[in-house]
Amino acid sequence: MRLHRLDITAFGPFGTSQSVDFDDLSAAGLFLLHGPTGAGKTSVLDAVCYALYGSVPGARQGSGQGMTLRSDHAAVGTRTEVRLELTVAGRRLEITRQPPWERPKLRGKGTTVDKAQTWLREYDATIRAWKDLSRSHQEIGEEITQLLGMSREQFCQVVLLPQGDFARFLRADAEARGKLLGRLFDTRRFAEVEKRLAERRRATEAQVREGDATLLADAHRMQQAAGGAMELPELAPGEPGLAEAVLEAAAVARADARELLTIAECRLTAAESAQAATGRHLADARELDRLQRRFAEARERAARLAERAEDHRAAQERMERGRKAETVAPALELRDAAEGEHRRAAAAEARARALLPQALADAGAAGLAAAARRAAEERGGLEAAGRAERRLAELVDERAGLDRQERADEEVRQEAETWLADWEATRTALQSRVDTAQEAATRAEQLAVQRDPAQRRLAAARQRDRLTDDTEAARQRALTAAEDAVEARAHWLDLKEQRLQGIAAELAANLTDGTPCAVCGATEHPAPARKSAGHVDREAEERALTAHQTAEERRAQAERHLGTVREALAAATAEAGDTPTAQLAEEAEELEGAYTRARTAASGLHAAQEELRQAEGEREQRVAAQQQAAVRSASRVATRDRLEREQAALEEELTRARGAAESVAARAAQLERRAALLTEAADTARAAADTAQRLKDADARLADAAFRAGFDTPADAAAALLDDTAHRELQRRLDTWQSEDAAVRAVLAEADTADAARRPPADLAAAQGAAADADRRLREASSARDAADRCRAELDRLSAHAAASVRRLAPLREEHTRVARLASLAAGTSADNEHRMRLESYVLAARLEQVAAAATARLLRMSSGRYTLVHSDDRSGRGRSGLGLHVVDAWTGRERDTATLSGGETFFASLALALGLADVVTDEAGGVRLDTLFIDEGFGSLDDQTLDEVLDVLDALRERDRSVGIVSHVADLRRRIHAQLEVVKGRSGSVLRQRGAG
Fold this sequence. Notes:
The protein is an alpha+beta fold. It is built from 25 helices and 17 strands. Helix 9 packs antiparallel against helix 19. It is flat.
């Protein structure tokens, strides 16, 4: 970075415009910036810093955006401005900055505040002209910071070398050095690494503690499952060895549980054996009791059977007679069936003969059958006549159909002739409708093209009329807002002037005896100013200022609104022209009416075309129908003649066949009914004769069967016969008695039952008591075994869960161990960190080594080879090491702290340190070359020889094409350095006088 030119206007102590040509000053490589105390030497450097970064270092920036940078000596109408021309990264740039400016209003009384302004331009060598790059504060700030590669603080330390700061740096402790180096080299990322490692350590530690808490919870559950016999480790969550102790205690508890389970299983086996023995004894007692009760019950049943023996013999005899009667039952059933059939046949014969003529009422079956055959033969002869009668009816229907067809075809012909007679007129009318609709459609399309522009002009004219009124209203509002803004500004300026007139009283209100006055510095205040009536304080002025700013915003808003309305009015006028709105509305309405009428007329085009097409189709259909009707009429003449001849022949045949009946069908029906009656009478007569013979045969067979069965008459056999219900009941009684008798005999014949009856009665209660005791002991043993098994299973499950938790936590424990080690190492608390050096301190120590090496190269020349700066890792007291800085004295060969240097030695050591730091920071900033440096004060503490050596070192910087500006008021430097920039102060402000190397 090389500075070329600096222009200052109304900045700091400079009330007028001042310029500095750095190219002329830098020609000699070394130039002097001098002037009396308070003249403004530092303000020149502040102007450079403000041009680059928009602010100045330290408290000189003041509050706000730099309104305090304005010179109190500047004229009222002169705006504060700083313009700097420089070359950085091969680009020649011009930066212009104007801080906020409180100026008089252009109209009315009072002042207004103009916002800060910034411009960035770049010189284009190809066109030999400046081109604008940006006017944004943020964009320009980011661009300059990126090009320089350093912040404002770094720039002030590297380019504007404040020797007082580096003298304090030499004497400071490690913590103070760390803060300064941290700001210069921006090691916040390493501090962030330390913070992130500490957070990660706390997070993993919390996770490990949470996992250990879960593991301890499993251990407590295992202790409960083991009945309190398990001993828990006396370790807290997160302590080493907790997992191994829990797993070891779980293994012991599982072994104890398995041992208890084995003991319980042995007890269960013994209880099962005892329960089986008592069960067998109880079963034997129950069997003996059962057999004894069985024998007693059999004796009682035998006694009851002996009492019912007489009834049993009577039932056997009744069953025997019933079995004999069953052999006669088929003959009885056959005789009853024959009698019933004969009665039904006789009744049917009587009914059939009642329907016959009197002449045939007494005829036999053979005579009735012969009469039926004769009637059937006569009926068969009438079938041909019936077919002829049906054919005659069909002929009558066919002729009627021909007549209907003839009438229909005649109607078709007449209707077609009538319709076709008007066809030409109909076609002409339909074609005319189609043509008219087509013309209307064409006219509607033409009107549609004119319709939209007319509507747009009408809408624009209406908007023009509305905006004309709005423009006038907006103009009035803008005028009112401007007047209000002028009055508010005048009121604010009046209040401000009144406050300035009474500012002495406002300052005097804060004076106390013994405290220096902020204006004159006196500690005694014999006659402080008093507030007069109507004094304006700061709050009243600020309220007036707020009201003034609000009025200005309303005025600007009203003017913007007026401009917007005027632009809209101009656009509407350009669209509508000067034609009155009423005329445009009338033209648009007339055009809309014509368009509507044309659309209405054109809407019937499709319907007219469709109607014409349908009419043409109907004409073709009617012509075809007329021709088809004529063809059908000609073919019907021959058909009619054939039908008339066939009808005459059939009528003659039917007259002969009908006889006295109305029709052949009626005659056939008479003969058919007669044949049916005769046939039925013959059949019933034969059936009655047959059933009478079968009844006689059944009586003979029944008498014979009753005699062979041992009954005197068939009636006795019928009386002895048992029905199904009586037979089943009697057989059940006999079977029950027989079964009971056999069962009793079988029980009494059993050897074990008889043997049990001879033994003493069984003691069932004692056997049941012994079995109940054995069952209880078995249940107790089984419950104990199940409890032991559940305990063993629960311990296995919880142990497996605990082992899984330990395995799951193992990677997390490893990560926590690793992170904790890294975090303590980075924080300097680890035993492995011998120097107790934090990570950020370690990085800064490396930078300090580079700075010390770069500073030593110049310190050797300034001290005639005596002093060398070295970095030290030793601790300072109980603090941490890493940022120690010592000086090695070649004359004594001893290494001592830099705080032991004398005043002059401290100056050139701090100067060497500042120059070395500038080189290192420059390299750190990406290698941006710093061709212009400033060194502020400290040369008055050097003797002549040391001063010459220091100037030789600074002059050697020209070898790297650098220019160094020395800021000092030492008179001897004005003799030694020919290129000078003098700051001369006066009552109207300071001015700059420049003298080049020549």
